[in-house]
């Protein structure tokens, strides 16, 4: 008997990956299908996901629980950089894909699989992120991407195909057709009525992790987050690992409607797309981190780090997690975090994260210097000499302008030597 080749399928139990198993059987009957569900904090019943994969035709199912690894080795790297794509998107999906790819390759090696399959569409960023990451780890693995091959052209047709194969859709219908991606950092919503930018999002129908601003409490809540070298380590005095920290902040932030954005973004593949993102805990963390950095980083480092943070977000968004440039950025960012230690107090109120105080032994803010009173460390008279030197180029510029307009103010003669 000829041994079948194996394919590892990135499996979530959602619409796209659920129909891929019967489709692979119909079109690649000689492949042994191994489903791999990488748990990065999506709120799914993994037992049901496993059963669904088996009942759909998978020969084996791996469930890889990597939630804490996802937070501490991926999300926290971006947090230290203050990375946000186009100044809004906190990269929830983009951080998850390279870790998912890493686990898919590990399972493929364990099983001796020649192929990896995924359910990313041919219009999305994730196909690039997954396949680039896989190629960065093991370029010999071949990819099967059904959305780029089959004749299914819409989610409506995908639903019809699922129904023809008796696949349980778990509440997905042509009326509730949003495409969602969730992990412990965020949940994204795309498709349906959101595809028309003239439509206002129906947040009451869409939101999963968060209250609407209207339903958020009328009384604010104070929290304190302690950081050590740029990493959040305590919430309200309680030490928490990455997974528990983000889970706790998601709950608190979700209550107060924190971190909900409606974003029209520029995709990697060249088109614009619209999505609703809920990132309650991540929004709280990045705002707290920014406040603390403003307290402990000197001006030039802070300003240059803003530039690096923007480029860092672009690299992550654009599937370059395993690039040498990102590694170099990580080294720079880590060097800036040595003094980012302290505690930040925040007030959460109806979608807003308000600064409420902070303390750090590494603070560069000095009340004696910054106050209006004269102290020993700063003599206000010294400012006169500083201003004279600082303004010198602008004085010369103005004098030249006066000379050129005929209002002679100063004689400056330059000539070539013979």
Automatic annotation (TrEMBL):
Name the positions where ATP binds. 10-18, 119
Please name the SUPFAM superfamilies in this protein's record.
Answer: Adenine nucleotide alpha hydrolases-like, Argininosuccinate synthetase, C-terminal domain
What keywords were assigned to this record?
Amino-acid biosynthesis, Arginine biosynthesis, ATP-binding, Cytoplasm, Ligase, Nucleotide-binding
GO terms for molecular function, please?
Answer: argininosuccinate synthase activity
Q: Where is the Arginosuccinate synthase C-terminal domain?
A: 178-396
Q: Which reaction does it catalyse?
A: L-citrulline + L-aspartate + ATP = 2-(N(omega)-L-arginino)succinate + AMP + diphosphate + H(+)
- The answer on whether this UniProt entry bears the keyword Electron transport reads no
The record's subcellular location field reads: Cytoplasm
**Pathway as given in its UniProt record:** Amino-acid biosynthesis; L-arginine biosynthesis; L-arginine from L-ornithine and carbamoyl phosphate: step 2/3
The entry sums up its family as follows:
Belongs to the argininosuccinate synthase family. Type 1 subfamily.
Subunit composition and interactions: Homotetramer.
What is this protein called in UniProt? Argininosuccinate synthase
């Amino acid at each position: 008997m000829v041994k079948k080749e194996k394919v590892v399928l990135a499996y979530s139990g959602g619409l796209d990956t659920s129909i891929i198993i019967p489709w692979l059987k119909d079109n690649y009957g000689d492949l042994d299908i191994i489903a791999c569900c990488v748990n990065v904090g999506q709120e799914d019943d993994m037992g049901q996901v496993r059963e669904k994969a088996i009942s759909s035709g998978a020969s084996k199912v791996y469930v890889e629980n990597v939630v804490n690894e996802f937070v501490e080795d991926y999300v926290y790297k971006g947090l230290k950089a203050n990375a946000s794509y186009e100044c809004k998107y906190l990269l929830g999906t983009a951080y998850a894909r390279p870790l998912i790819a890493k686990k898919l390759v590990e399972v493929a090696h364990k099983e001796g699989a020649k192929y990896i399959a995924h359910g990313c569409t041919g219009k999305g960023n994730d196909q690039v992120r997954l396949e680039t990451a896989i190629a960065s780890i093991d370029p010999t693995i071949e990819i099967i991407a059904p959305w780029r091959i089959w004749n299914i052209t819409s989610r409506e047709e995908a639903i019809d195909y699922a129904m023809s194969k008796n696949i349980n859709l778990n509440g997905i219908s042509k009326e509730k057709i949003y495409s969602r991606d969730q992990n412990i950092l965020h949940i994204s919503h795309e498709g349906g009525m959101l595809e028309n930018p003239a439509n206002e999002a129906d947040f009451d129908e869409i939101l999963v992790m968060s209250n609407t601003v209207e339903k958020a409490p009328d009384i604010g809540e104070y929290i304190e987050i302690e950081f050590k070298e740029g990493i959040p380590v305590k919430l309200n005095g309680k030490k928490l690992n990455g997974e528990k920290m983000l889970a706790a902040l998601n709950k608190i932030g979700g209550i107060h409607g924190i971190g909900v954005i409606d974003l029209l973004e520029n995709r990697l593949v060249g088109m614009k797309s619209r999505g609703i993102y809920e990132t309650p805990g991540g929004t709280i963390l990045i705002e707290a981190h920014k406040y603390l950095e403003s307290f402990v980083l000197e001006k030039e480092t802070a300003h240059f780090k803003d530039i690096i943070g923007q480029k860092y977000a672009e690299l992550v968004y654009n599937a370059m997690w395993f690039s040498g440039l990102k590694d170099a950025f990580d080294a720079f960012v880590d060097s800036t975090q040595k003094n980012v230690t302290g505690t930040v107090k925040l007030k959460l109120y109806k979608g807003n994260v308000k600064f409420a105080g902070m303390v750090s032994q590494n603070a560069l803010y000095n009340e004696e210097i910054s106050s209006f009173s004269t102290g020993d460390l700063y003599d206000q008279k010294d400012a006169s000499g500083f201003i004279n030197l600082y303004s010198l180029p602008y004085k010369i510029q103005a004098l030249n302008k006066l000379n050129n307009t005929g209002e002679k103010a100063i004689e400056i003669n330059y000539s070539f030597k013979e």
